[in-house]
Amino acid sequence: MARILVLVPFPLDPDQLSLREKQLDAAPLPDGVEVDFKPVKAAPGNYVSHHDYVLADMSLFEAGLKAQDDGYGAVCIDTVSDSGVNALRSVLDIPVVGPGRTQYAVASMLGRTFGIVTMWKQWFPLYEKVLSEIGLANRCTGIRSIDVIPNNRTLMAGKDHALPLLLEAARALVAEDGADVICLGSTTMHEAHTFLQENLNVPVVNPGPLSYFIAEALIALKLSQSRSAYPKPLVPKFQMVHEMLDGAVISEGPA
Amino acid sequence: MRKVLVLVPFALDESQVAYREAQTRTVSLRSDVTFHFKPVKAGPTSVASPHDWLLLDIALFEAGLDAEADGFDAVVIDTVSDSGADALRSMLDIPVLAPGRASLIFSLTLGRRFGIMAQWQPAMVRYEKVLDEWGLRSRCAGVEHFDTPPDFANLITGKEDAVFPKMENACRRLIERGADVICLGSTTMHQAHGYLSSALEVPVVNPGPLSYKLIEAMLSLELRHSRNAYPKPLVPKSEMVHAMLDAAARASGV
Q1: Which of A27, A214, A228 comes nearest B180 by C-beta?
Q2: Which class is domain A2-99+209-252?
């Protein structure tokens, strides 16, 4: 039995969480794989500034700290920003999968180049960060935004007008920028995946579901992140991290 | 049930193919996907020169050409040289997995830099070519070999005690040079994976089994190579390719 924990980067109510869990419907995982979604305790309002990035890193780090003790075989992060991944890798021996770096790697296996289609320009620095980190920036031929403000809780609900815009942007990535493969700029765009794949003649990578398959593969292959790339802390301060997030919850007040 | 064709780059007999098939038993695979191994009709004796690479390209291309028509849902190449993969992608609409580039790129999701363990000095130049082609040189800590001629038929069988420590030493040199992850430079090294994984403190990527898990994921997610990167030929000559390999098999006395 492989148990995978997916960390959700916002404190969501059950209805909002179920929109994230729908990513499991994209493709059936192998028999015996169990996936649980867990939202963070507190979070930044969105992911558009370095202020937000550091809060996102902390909240996801805290949410995943006990995953190994809780019996999970792998952790996935439900954001292509790969927030919290590096810190979690430094303290967990089980694989921690960042869907951002994973989708750029897999896109590079499917074509020479890839492009990223996304909701708004404010997310561009997150892509550039992960692309530089994994060393595949030279394979990304373009990032295009449709400039529709996303909602990290209701996802694409009420945004049907965004679908043709996303398609137009993805077509421009292929025709004008030379992208062989399209990557989605957010796991929250998973509801647009089927529409885009049906209307494009190049592969469209759906980062959330892909990350679950890669997590299962890592468990099966008994592979995990390299300890030399992600060294353990000399003095772990887990209790401090938990108390910081408890403090953040109090500061936010009742939901 | 979905069927994956694994193309073996040498004209091996049944018992020799079995050494290759053993790779599928080192990892848990989905029960609804089956793997079928098929050797090429003819090919080079070594993989050390552009002469060999070219022969390997066309041998594997021919071996996989009819995969889709034969009812297979995907193709995996059983060599990290990725020989024949690009040509097959230009002809087939089913996914074709190239374990060489897949294992190097995949290793970047596990660490900052990878090191490649090569078989022996004549194999080194091939990795240099791959690193340049894929622009991965800045992420490669080095390529080291363990100075042992390859045995493409029997792999490491019967030579474990002599060869495994030499492999471990080559990996340790890579770690000293800054490798966070070791990539085995050939699917024929798979028998050493368990030993090396236990002995070393960094992840060791076993390209064959990794390629099976990746192809499972690609089949489930309905992903395949981009036609823009691998356009179809204007004038396909499949019959000519088959005739060439039939002639090659006659020339090698098979």
Answers
A1: A228
A2: alpha beta
Chain A residues whose beta carbon lies within 8 Å of the beta carbon of residue B176: none
Q: For the whole model, what pTM was predicted?
A: 0.90
Q: Are A202 and A174 in contact (CB under 8 A)?
A: yes
- Of the CATH numbers 3.20.20.60, 3.40.50.2300, 3.40.50.300, 3.40.50.12500, which one belongs to the domain with range A100-205? 3.40.50.12500
Structural domains of chain B, ranges and CATH numbers in brackets: 2-98+209-251 (3.40.50.1860), 100-207 (3.40.50.12500)
Confidence of residue B254 (pLDDT cuts 50, 70, 90): low
Residue type, A118: T
ipTM of the complex: 0.84
Check CB contact under 8 Å for B109 and A228: no
Q: pLDDT (tens digit, 9 = 90+) per residue, B82-109?
A: 999 999 999 999 999 999 999 999 999 9
Mean pLDDT of the residues in chain A: 94
Judge: B223–A106 Cβ closer than 8 Å, yes or no: yes
Closest A-chain CA to B105? A105
**Which residues of chain B are within 8 Å of residue A223 when distances are taken between CB atoms?**
110, 203, 205, 210
Distances (CA, A) of B158 to B79, B87, B161: 22, 36, 8
